[in-house]
Write a structure and sequence with these properties.
The protein is mostly helical and 85 residues long. It contains 3 helices and 3 strands; from the N terminus they run βαββαα. The N and C termini lie far apart (31 Å).
Length: 85
């Protein structure tokens, strides 16, 4: 997979802007390099799949593997898929 530059800019939408703050915390935690002016944008050299893996890894470290497992099971149940674990 190739890396691409992803840029996130606050929009004034509370949830989106809060997500950017969470992303910054994930990037800082893993010490990933990113460009920012400190206020208005974050740009990183990663693709969307790598970024999703980074976020899941941080959640797993913070909440534990059972948290992720329960989220997946709950989601599958909501979608009415049969699961056996």
């Amino acid at each position: 997979m190739r890396k691409e530059e992803l840029t996130f800019t606050p929009t004034g939408n509370f949830q989106y802007d809060l997500g950017i703050l969470g992303l910054k915390k994930v990037l800082d935690f893993f010490e990933f390099k990113y460009k920012s002016d400190g206020n208005f944008y974050i740009s990183i050299q990663r693709n969307t799949y790598q970024l999703l893996e980074d976020i899941i890894a941080k959640l797993t470290l913070d909440q534990g593997i059972d948290y992720i497992k329960e989220k997946i099971i709950d989601d599958l149940k909501k979608r009415k898929r049969i699961i056996r674990i």
